[in-house]
């Protein structure tokens, strides 16, 4: 398939890169303030994510749930919805996948597809409810998806100790059997023992599929039309409500799949009392990726790199790992205020012309 | 000094276009001076320069004979120049007084002194016959009243020269008459007015002189009293323009649309259309005349399926479509040029080619097995753009947002006609368009009629209804007041029917 490079692509890439540069500059100031050398800090940050095959594999694995949660938010955004509930959808998707893994005793080739399907369904159901509420009663999805986050949180809080209690701890489930894990031996060995797993391939497949749906299909045309202008869509006879529900379900399915990559891929059990931070980071990924599927992929890889390198940076020169989080936050800030960056670009351009 | 405003040999270039090329505009004290030109002729740029929004590349501005440099709108305000914008800039949950003093709030110590302001507004209102209640909130007043608030805002700031930017575009015919009275009051009290417009009738009605510009160049300044509308139109467009729509006798055939005793709720959940019946035959244009908000929108939405019908039925070619979903109605042969082209008619962030298949993207040949066929869509769109003279910078790939209003409208008209419908509904198809585009769209509507389609034309412009329609339905307060033949009626009779039944109604 050909990559879609629309007119806006170049501008979006420029804005994203500038946001990253500004974020890193602001981080450099912070590192300097803590009394360390920013260049050395960044060198360790990127080394920590890239210096060995194992670390590189870990970076990819760290990125995987972010790719899917970012894709979920970006897809919903393209169709005019703000899915702030990716965290809850991930949690439910991951919980369903874990439940399948802990309940069924089947060989890998059967249990893995089942667990993955379960995660997709779990996420989709969790987003279907806000979708219906929006379509039928005009309940804003920001409110209802946040509430679904907490419903998911308490469902897991109750169900894990009740049915899937771990051997030692009340607060987490038993570990899933190897057959139900997305980790496979050959891949881990290829990356020298990294926790990279099949989730990465699922995520990339999802990016390709969503890009295809949005740009090439009748469904994508309808979804985007509803997102850009629901009144015009209604005028043209497009079923606006059905598309809102469908869009939420697809977004939820993506986040749910992200949950599988997190809980039966990167991890092998599920904790209670935690909403996965990756769900909220998905909003940042989508923002930096300009709500495009490929953009989300690249943005997630970048964030994954920062996340996986920050421990190394801390260990080597005592820069607190919170600095990495601050850099990420600053980048998000600049990505979110991309209008300002665009204006800056425009001014630079017009000045150049003036000379 | 004779002239209050003089803009001499103004030139303004934007990247790629010369918006104003050696334009001179001289406004006398106490006159209404019209600035006439098609969309994109450079009227707004010229007024933007006078108001301090842009700087001219060359040329000079004199106010009351003194040469000035207007660096920003504050300078313009200080020089007594005020602009009544086309889109009002008002805070809806503020009172009229609060809106008017916004930015120059009168203070008594640390507190606002709104009372003094309200009294002054009351005085201004009485002096110029504006009839404004200083304590009413903006959200409770009509559009016409909001415009008067904008006018008082300027008077409150002691403006001597008032620029009106397309002031009648948002008004009902009644409000237009009131506005004209107000403008005459203003000049009688010594103010000067620059009226930006492309409506010749209004110029004829109120203006003393008229400066015409075309494609950034000055065509000339004329005395309105001795210049005919046709002459001004020719100056504006650069060729002869016919106001009379050329059409032969209609030749009505079978009944295509039959609306039978329908009642429809409006957005305030009260009956917007009461027990309404109407027939449109093939080969005729039925016009719906009425003051804005008297049931026209509800009628169109009921027929197209955008609004639920409470009782009664709608038949298309003898088939009941009252409960049919919108898409099925389109497939059954209804095409609809919507009243609001940007809200309903186009997905502004889609390209023109995507917009051209807004109703048919899922049919063959535009898609196959759920996949869009880009080449087919592009060919189809190129074809519409060529046949309907839609001009866009990047052709079919341009975003709809980037097109001018006239080109957006032509694209919609083209798309709907290309559906080859049995019934074409045109709701205010020429709103906000210039003379050239209006003429063009009227011609296309008549063409549709002559090829045996049924056309339903809804318009607030009485001239348009009278010129284009074969039969005219007059609505008031959601009811059908009467049905007349266009050939046997005139503005006076239809106007009376629109107004006569209105008495006793609060509007």
Structure, described:
The complex is a heterodimer of chains A (355) and B (507). By secondary structure, chain A is an all-alpha fold. Helix content of chain A is 77%, strand content 0%. Chain B has 17 helices and 24 strands. In chain B, helix 6 (173-188) links the parallel strand 9 (161-165) and strand 10 (192-197). Helix content of chain B is 33%, strand content 27%. With 507 residues, chain B is α/β, with parallel strands linked by helices. The radius of gyration of chain B is 25 Å and the shape is globular. Chain B has a domain at 246-333 and 423-442 and 451-507: P-loop containing nucleotide triphosphate hydrolases (Rossmann fold), CATH 3.40.50. The two termini of chain B are 44 Å apart. In chain B, the strands form 6 sheets. Chain B has a 6-stranded mixed beta sheet with strand order 6-9-10-3-11-12, sandwiched between helices. At the A-B interface, helix 9 and helix 10 of A face helix 10, helix 11 and strand 20 of B.
Write the layout of secondary structure elements.
The complex is a heterodimer of chains A (355) and B (507).
Chain A (H helix, E strand, L loop, with lengths): L7 H26 L4 H13 L2 H26 L7 H18 L4 H30 L3 H23 L21 H6 L8 H18 L1 H11 L1 H6 L4 H27 L10 H12 L4 H25 L3 H16 L1 H17 L1
Helix pairs in contact in A: 1-2, 1-14, 1-15, 2-13, 3-8, 3-11, 3-12, 3-13, 4-5, 4-6, 4-11, 4-12, 5-6, 5-11, 8-9, 8-11, 8-13, 12-13, 12-14, 13-14
Chain B lengths: L2 E12 L2 E12 L3 E5 L6 H8 L7 E6 L2 E3 L4 H6 L2 E4 L11 H6 L5 E2 L2 E2 L1 H14 L15 H14 L4 E5 L7 H16 L3 E6 L2 H7 L2 E6 L2 E7 L5 H9 L17 E11 L5 E11 L2 E6 L6 H9 L4 E8 L2 E2 L5 H7 L1 E4 L3 H5 L6 H5 L10 E2 L2 E2 L1 H14 L17 H14 L4 E5 L7 H16 L3 E5 L3 H7 L2 E6 L2 E7 L5 H10 L7
Parallel strand pairs in B: 3-10, 3-11, 6-9, 9-10, 15-22, 15-23, 18-21, 21-22
Antiparallel strand pairs in B: 1-2, 1-4, 4-5, 7-8, 11-12, 13-14, 13-16, 16-17, 19-20, 23-24
């Amino acid at each position: 398939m050909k990559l879609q490079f629309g007119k806006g692509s170049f501008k979006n890439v420029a804005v994203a890169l500038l946001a990253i540069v500004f974020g890193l500059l602001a981080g450099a100031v912070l590192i300097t303030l803590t009394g360390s050398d920013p260049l050395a800090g960044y060198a360790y940050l990127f080394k920590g994510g890239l210096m060995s095959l194992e670390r590189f594999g870990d970076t990819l694995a760290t990125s995987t749930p972010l790719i899917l949660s970012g894709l979920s938010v970006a897809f919903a955004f393209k169709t005019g919805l703000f899915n702030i509930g990716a965290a809850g959808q991930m949690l439910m998707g991951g919980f369903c996948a874990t439940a399948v893994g802990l309940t069924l005793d089947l060989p890998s080739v059967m249990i893995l597809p089942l667990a993955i399907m379960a995660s997709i369904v779990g996420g989709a159901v969790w987003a279907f409810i806000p979708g219906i509420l929006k379509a039928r009663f005009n309940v804003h999805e920001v409110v209802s998806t946040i509430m679904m986050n907490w419903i998911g949180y308490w469902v897991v809080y109750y169900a894990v100790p009740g049915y899937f209690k771990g051997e030692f701890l009340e607060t987490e489930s038993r570990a899933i059997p190897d057959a139900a894990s997305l980790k496979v031996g050959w891949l881990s060995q290829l990356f020298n023992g990294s926790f990279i797993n099949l989730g990465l391939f699922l995520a990339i497949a999802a990016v390709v599929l969503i890009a295809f749906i949005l740009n090439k299909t009748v469904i994508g045309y309808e979804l985007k039309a509803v997102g850009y202008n629901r009144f015009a869509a209604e005028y043209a006879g497009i079923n606006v409500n059905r598309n809102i529900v469908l869009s939420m379900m697809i977004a939820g399915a993506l986040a749910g799949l992200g949950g599988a990559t997190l809980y039966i891929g990167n991890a092998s059990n599920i904790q209670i009392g935690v909403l996965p931070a990756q769900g909220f980071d998905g909003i940042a990924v989508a923002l930096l990726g300009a709500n495009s599927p490929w953009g989300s992929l690249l943005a997630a890889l970048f964030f994954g790199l920062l996340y996986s390198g920050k421990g190394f940076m801390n260990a080597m020169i005592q820069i607190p790992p919170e600095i990495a989080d601050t850099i990420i936050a600053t980048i998000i800030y600049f990505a979110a205020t991309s209008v300002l960056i665009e204006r800056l670009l425009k001014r630079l351009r017009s000045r150049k012309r003036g000379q | 000094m004779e002239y209050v405003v003089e803009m001499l040999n103004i030139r303004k270039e934007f990247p790629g276009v010369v918006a104003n090329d050696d334009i001179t505009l001289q406004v006398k004290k106490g006159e209404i001076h019209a600035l006439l030109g098609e969309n994109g002729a450079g009227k707004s740029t010229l007024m933007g320069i006078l108001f301090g929004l842009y700087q001219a590349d060359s040329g000079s501005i004199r106010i009351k004979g003194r040469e000035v440099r207007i660096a920003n709108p504050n300078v313009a305000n200080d020089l007594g120049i005020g602009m009544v914008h086309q889109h009002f800039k008002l805070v809806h949950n503020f009172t009229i007084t609060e809106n008017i003093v916004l930015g120059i709030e009168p203070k008594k110590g640390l507190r606002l002194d709104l009372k003094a302001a309200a009294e002054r507004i009351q005085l201004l209102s009485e002096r110029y016959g504006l009839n404004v209640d200083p304590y009413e909130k903006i959200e409770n007043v009509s559009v016409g009243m909001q415009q008067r608030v904008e006018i008082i805002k300027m008077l409150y700031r002691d403006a001597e020269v008032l620029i009106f930017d397309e002031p009648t575009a948002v008004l009902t015919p009644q409000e237009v008459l009131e506005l004209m009275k107000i403008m005459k009051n203003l000049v009688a009290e010594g103010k000067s007015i620059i009226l930006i417009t492309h409506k010749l009738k209004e110029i004829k009605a109120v203006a003393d002189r008229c400066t015409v510009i075309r494609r950034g160049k000055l065509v000339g300044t004329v005395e309105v009293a001795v210049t005919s509308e046709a002459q001004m139109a020719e100056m504006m467009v650069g060729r002869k323009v016919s106001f009379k729509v050329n059409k032969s006798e209609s030749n009505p055939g079978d009944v295509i649309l039959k609306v039978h005793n329908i009642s429809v709720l409006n957005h305030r959940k009260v009956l917007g259309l009461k027990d309404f019946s109407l027939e449109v035959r093939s080969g005729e244009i039925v016009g719906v005349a009425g003051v804005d908000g008297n049931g026209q929108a509800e009628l169109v939405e009921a027929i197209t399926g955008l609004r639920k019908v409470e009782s009664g039925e709608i038949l298309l070619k003898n088939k009941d479509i009252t409960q049919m979903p919108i898409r099925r109605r389109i497939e059954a042969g209804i095409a609809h040029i919507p009243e609001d082209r940007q809200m309903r008619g186009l997905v502004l962030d889609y390209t023109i080619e995507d917009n051209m298949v807004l109703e048919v993207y899922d049919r063959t040949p535009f898609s196959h097995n759920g996949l869009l066929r880009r080449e087919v869509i592009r060919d189809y769109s190129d074809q519409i753009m060529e046949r309907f003279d839609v001009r866009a910078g990047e052709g079919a790939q341009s975003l709809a947002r980037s097109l001018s209003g006239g080109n957006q409208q032509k694209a919609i008209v083209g798309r709907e006609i290309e559906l080859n419908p049995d019934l074409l509904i045109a709701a205010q198809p020429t709103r906000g368009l210039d003379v050239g585009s209006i003429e063009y769209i009227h011609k296309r509507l008549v063409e549709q009629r002559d090829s045996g389609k049924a056309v339903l034309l809804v318009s607030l412009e009485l001239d348009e209804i009278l010129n284009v329609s074969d039969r005219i339905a007059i609505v008031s307060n959601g009811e059908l007041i009467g049905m007349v033949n266009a050939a046997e009626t005139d503005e006076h009779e239809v106007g009376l029917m629109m107004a006569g039944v209105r008495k006793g109604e609060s509007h």
